[in-house]
Design goal:
The chain is mainly α. The protein contains 5 helices and 2 strands, in the order βαααααβ. The protein starts with a strand and ends with a strand. It comes from Kribbella voronezhensis.
């Protein structure tokens, strides 16, 4: 999939654990892993908004299109 999710990069910048991130966003750690590993087929705007609020970033900081 040419869309790459960069949650791990943003978490590392903030030294935030997956568990803390999942709790603050309202996701399970398993669902965060699905997003991190590129196995997600879709992301709700409400989830993307919550992720951006928690990480204080823009959607473009979390999602990147790369040519295959």
């Amino acid at each position: 999939m040419p869309i790459v999710v960069r949650i791990d990069v943003e978490l590392a910048k903030r030294k935030m654990s997956v568990g803390e991130f999942a709790e603050r966003v309202g996701l399970t750690p398993a669902n965060v892993a699905v997003l991190k590993n590129g196995r997600a087929k879709a992301v709700r705007f409400s989830t993307l908004e919550a992720m951006c609020q928690v990480l204080d970033c823009q959607p473009g900081d979390l999602l990147e299109w790369v040519e295959e």
